[in-house]
Automatic annotation (TrEMBL):
Protein's name in the database: Putative iron-regulated protein
The organism's place on the tree of life at top rank: Bacteria
Keyword match Chloroplast: no
This protein's record includes keyword Transport: no
Organism in which the protein naturally occurs: Ruegeria atlantica
Signal peptide span: 1-20
């Protein structure tokens, strides 16, 4: 029922743009519109988070939008198309095969800006082969050849173990941390390309984990392009969020199946 209520709220917001403006505080809008890069975090399956992202894009009027959920190839296919049909968009982006929540949640975000789309999704095969395959010579530039400090590595592995319901072997944790760092780096590379190509501002659609200032994309940007003005919006549920952000907008949580049930059925 809670999930349905949020979907209905999203429909009301889309039908009443004046009300949608109230979802983002004025000071946050002001900060976003003065930044070179605006990272818009989300919990992937919360519909209201995507409505807020769509309103943010309207305020920012970006010159490019970087998507965690779109591959480079998908972005290239999209570049030559004028899409007004969600089914056609899903076909071009191969959305059903991607494993992301339904495109209906993200469609308002796609509609909110006609700026070029930059893809930053790392294909599963590339994740399995590692950073050297996915980034080549850029792996060293993005710091992926250097181990994390021991304390940070331990913290990240603990986060991964908790995220997987304490149900995976500890030997798998370093690889999961490496994949997270790789995805941060690929997103950063797409952002820098978008800035170079278009001059900015650039908006980024991605999960809260990649957005966080203490370990995600912003740490790469501050090292590689310290002159860029970056603003990071996190989106929490019921006041809960991990990490550091410039601002956080809270939304009601949605009803979900217990993710740990999947691990129990495997045992």
């Amino acid at each position: 029922m809670k999930h349905l209520a949020i979907l209905l709220c999203a429909l009301v917001v889309m039908a009443n743009p004046g009300h949608a403006d109230e979802l983002i505080p004025d000071d946050v809008v002001s900060a976003m519109t003065s930044a070179d890069v605006v990272i818009l975090g989300e919990i992937h399956d919360n519909p209201l988070h995507h409505i807020i992202q769509a309103e943010a894009l309207k305020a920012i009027n970006p010159s490019a939008v970087v998507w965690e959920m779109v591959t480079e190839e998908g972005a290239q296919r999209l570049a030559d198309k004028a899409i007004s049909d969600p089914e056609e968009l899903a076909r071009i982006l191969k959305w059903l095969e991607s494993g992301w929540p339904p495109l209906s949640m993200y469609y308002p975000v796609f509609q909110a800006s006609d700026a070029p789309v930059y893809g930053a999704m790392v294909p599963r095969a590339a994740m399995e082969r590692g950073a050297a395959t996915a980034l080549g010579a850029d792996a060293a530039r993005y710091g992926l050849t250097v181990p994390l400090p021991k304390v940070e590595q331990t913290e990240r592995e603990a986060d991964q173990l908790a995220a997987h319901c304490n149900a995976i072997p500890e030997a798998a944790l370093p690889q999961l941390v490496a994949i997270q760092r790789l995805r941060d780096a690929v997103l950063t590379r797409a952002i820098l390309r978008a800035v170079e190509d278009t001059g900015g501002p650039v908006a980024v659609i991605t999960g809260n984990g990649h957005s966080r200032k203490d370990r995600g994309i912003p740490t790469f940007l501050s090292r590689l392009r310290p002159g860029l003005k970056v603003f990071v919006l996190g989106q929490s549920e019921d006041g809960v969020i991990d990490g550091e952000f410039d601002a956080v907008i809270d939304s009601p949580g949605i009803e979900r199946e217990d993710p740990c049930l999947a691990f129990e059925t495997q045992n």
